[in-house]
Amino acid sequence: MVKVAYDPPTERFPYRIRRRFNVLSEPKRVEDTESLPDVTEAGVRRSALRYQGSDRVNDVALPKIRKLIILRKMYKNRFSPERLEKIDRMIEAANATIYTKLANAVIDLKNQGMDDRRRGWTESDWRKHMEYINLIARPKEPPSPPPVMRGPRKSLKDLLPRIARMSRMPDFKEYRRLSQESWYRAPGKVSEAALKYNISERTKKLAVPRVVNTHF
Asked: Where are the domains of the chain?
């Protein structure tokens, strides 16, 4: 059996502590300060402040539903209606989590004095809704058009030749029959190259029509 080494008690910790725990509790020296994460003045990482928790983390972070019920009963006549609405929403969210169902702690909200809640939108919901409507009802400023990139300026005298050329009627192509074209060759005329062609024996055999047997 390995013998465990302990450090003697001190004024701050009046009890024995394992020597290995004291070694692990000493902060590590960091020489490369550029690789450290960006933190706020309070020492909290900025990435942690920007983090959006998943549904599982949000469900675990909710208080226990029975504690919320006790809190609502104790301060029902002391808290403002808006604060009670927030507690009711937390109770509904905690009652619908999977962890409450696994712990068999789901309760009937109507039997807990929550059936007297106002149905529909509350005053705080209407206030937030009207603030949003007033925000989007403001006239929007049209975006400024992008600047037009123009070339160097020219006088009207320099532009008149191009204007005159663009104002002319374009020359359309006149379509005629193929027989009226200069390059068209008459079908009855045979080219001279065809008259000088020497036919091969294979071509002669292919030119002979085949005899088809019609007797079946």
From this structure: 54-136
